[in-house]
Amino acid sequence: MSFAANHPRHRNDAKVMSRADLTARLVARLHHEEAVIGGIGYANFDLWGAGHRPQNFYMLGSMGLAVPIALGVAIAQPARRVVALEGDGSVLMQLGALATVAGLRPANLVIVIWDNGAYQITGGQPTAAAAAADLVAIARGAGIAQSAWAADESDFEEMIARALTEDGPWLIGCRIDAVKPVATTERDPARIRDRFMRGIAVGG
């Protein structure tokens, strides 16, 4: 039985969950200096709010780069588990990255897509995911076999537990709310970069 067979078949079959709550659940499971790349906007605001870690990287200003950056870290440090947190709008801007992940097959990479069907930070304009695009189905079509929607919070935790311990790459789709985050990431790119590089023991 495939990984996807145990989870909702379509986006609209998954429960709408709290993005902040899921982020906190994820962070609570990080015990081995896993690197986490937060995409622009609410994805990294919630990561920031869930607790500062030197292994967190907060993407500022450019859409669609969480997955490519996480892929690079995963290839460079195959012994470290790497998690990308990315919104549906940003994934749609870099769909080619999913095919690249599938082709390179980094066993230590986990991609989490926060899908609320909107470009939330720019005004809530609908994304293609709000209509017909199913990003988990697209990921499977690109070749990431272990791609599935999280049915609910318990399912998300079980999927994360597997993704942090078993070979990937993994892609977990989550339907999330549009609630604004309680924290905002500091706007200091050089400081974010330097702290992250020290956190993953690169540079001095």
Structure characteristics:
8 strands; alpha/beta; globular; 204 residues
Put the structure in a nutshell.
With 204 residues, the chain is an alpha/beta fold.
Write the SSE topology.
Elements lengths: L18 H10 L6 E4 L3 H8 L6 E3 L7 H11 L5 E6 H6 L1 H10 L4 E7 L2 E2 L5 E2 L8 H8 L3 E4 L3 H11 L6 E6 L13 H11 L5
Parallel strand pairs: 1-2, 1-3, 3-4, 4-8, 7-8
Antiparallel strand pairs: 5-6
Helix pairs in contact: 1-2
How far do the termini sit from each other? 47 Å
The beta-strand count equals: 8
> Which fold name fills CATH's third level, the topology?
Rossmann fold
* Gyration radius, rounded: 15 Å
Account of the 3D structure:
The protein is of the alpha/beta class and 204 residues long. It has one domain: 3-Layer(aba) Sandwich (Rossmann fold), CATH 3.40.50. The protein is built from eight helices and eight strands; from the N terminus they run H-E-H-E-H-E-H-H-E-E-E-H-E-H-E-H. It has helices at 19-28, 42-49, 66-76, 88-93, 95-104, 135-142, 153-163, 189-199, and strands at residues 35-38, 56-58, 82-87, 109-115, 118-119, 125-126, 146-149, 170-175. The strands form two sheets. The chain has a six-stranded parallel β-sheet, sandwiched between helices. A two-stranded antiparallel ribbon has the order 5-6. Helix 1 crosses helix 2. The radius of gyration is 15 Å and the shape is globular. The termini are far apart.
